[in-house]
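Customer escalation, tier 2.

The customer says the design service returned an amino acid string that "doesn't look like it belongs to this structure." They asked us to rerun it and document both sides in this ticket. The original structure tokens are below, unchanged.
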């Protein structure tokens, strides 16, 4: 939980400011390109405008299924009886039989690869008891992740008409995708599967980029009349993983083209600069009233930042610590902010965490530090 809190704080603080290179021109109504590890936004347009997400909704459903599997409240071979309600769900389908048992593994593949609405509802009912209860779980998880502009009404994103109270944003969806890849990499790997066969029916992944670019390994397509054609795409090239979200394009071709344009622009226009190793101390910060006088401050993972190509030598850093830092300090607690600049222009702010716990000192130690703080 401490790492989750750190990561969410990182995403909330990370921002790109003055852009030294021009962002691409796209047809999408809203879009964003984000570094998956740091949450750094490389470019965006209307990233905080609410739109209906259509089947991009299933990324949250997938996250909760992966959570249930990790917590062993579901098992891959567990049989789920497909209700008539799930079976009758319209839109994209994975052709599961009504009133018969289907394994969680097959339902998950049907939802992730084929974007089956019927599989989504069956999984939601298996976890939440009902789709409405599951939607409440989705919204609680969204709140915990800090997705402030997201609200879900169902598990699939399918509605017969407009559903303005079912919404998200390009920024929130990028954050959600990053959380799925970070917390459940084994489930994320399913999104790179091009096809699978269930009940004698071969089903194909709707993400065209899986055939167009070998570095693309996800993530989710969506379409409705209200939402247009949408796509969350992710690719890993070298040490960097980028996430693109495009919302409201006019066709399948347009969403694939916009997504690939964004990814190529991000990888070609920026260099990956590794500033710190996982566990490396950026600084030793003074701690008051603690059993130790200092604590190492750094990052929970390797810290790699994207900078405009050829400008790595113009990158500068400044660590601003939280002072006075008073014990107890929990390992993983945010104890400072690393401020980056490129050629003197702000390039993002990232939370720095305590590398170890510092318990409270004894009575005399606390008394002495009380005096030191009083005369500061």
């Amino acid at each position: 939980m401490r790492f989750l809190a750190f990561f969410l704080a990182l995403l909330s603080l990370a921002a790109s400011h003055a852009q030294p290179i021009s962002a691409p021109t796209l047809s999408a109504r809203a879009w964003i390109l984000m570094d998956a590890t740091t949450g750094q936004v490389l470019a965006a347009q209307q990233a905080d405008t609410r739109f209906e997400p259509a089947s991009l909704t299933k990324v949250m459903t997938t996250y909760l299924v992966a959570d249930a599997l990790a917590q062993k409240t579901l098992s891959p071979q567990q049989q789920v009886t497909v209700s008539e309600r799930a079976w009758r769900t319209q839109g994209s389908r994975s052709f599961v039989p009504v009133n018969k048992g289907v394994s969680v593994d097959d339902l998950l593949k049907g939802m992730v690869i084929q974007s089956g609405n019927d599989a989504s509802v069956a999984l939601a009912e298996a976890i939440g008891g009902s789709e409405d209860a599951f939607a409440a779980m989705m919204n609680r998880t969204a709140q915990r992740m800090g997705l402030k502009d997201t609200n879900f009404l169902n598990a699939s994103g399918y509605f017969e008409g407009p559903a303005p109270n079912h919404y998200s944003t390009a920024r929130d969806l990028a954050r959600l995708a990053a959380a799925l890849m970070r917390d459940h990499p084994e489930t994320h790997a399913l999104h790179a599967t091009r096809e699978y066969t269930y009940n004698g029916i071969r089903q194909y992944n709707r993400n065209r980029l899986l055939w167009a670019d070998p570095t693309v390994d996800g993530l989710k397509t969506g379409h409705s009349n209200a939402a247009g054609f949408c796509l969350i795409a992710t690719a890993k090239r070298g040490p960097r993983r980028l996430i693109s979200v495009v919302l409201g394009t006019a066709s399948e071709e347009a969403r694939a083209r916009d997504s690939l344009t964004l990814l190529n622009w991000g990888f070609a226009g920026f260099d990956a600069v590794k500033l710190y190793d996982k566990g490396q101390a950026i600084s030793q910060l003074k701690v008051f009233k603690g059993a130790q006088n200092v604590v190492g401050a750094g990052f929970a993972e390797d810290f790699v930042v994207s900078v405009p190509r050829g400008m790595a030598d113009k990158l500068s850093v400044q660590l601003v610590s939280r002072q006075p830092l008073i014990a107890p300090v929990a390992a993983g607690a945010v104890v400072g902010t690393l401020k980056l600049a490129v050629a003197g222009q702000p390039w993002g702010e990232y939370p720095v965490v305590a590398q170890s716990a510092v318990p409270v000192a004894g009575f005399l130690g606390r008394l002495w530090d009380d005096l030191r703080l009083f005369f500061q």
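Tier 2 assessment: The sequence is consistent with the input. Residues 1-19 have pLDDT under 50 and may be disordered. The first helix runs from residue 2 to 13. Sent an explanation to the customer and offered a walkthrough call.
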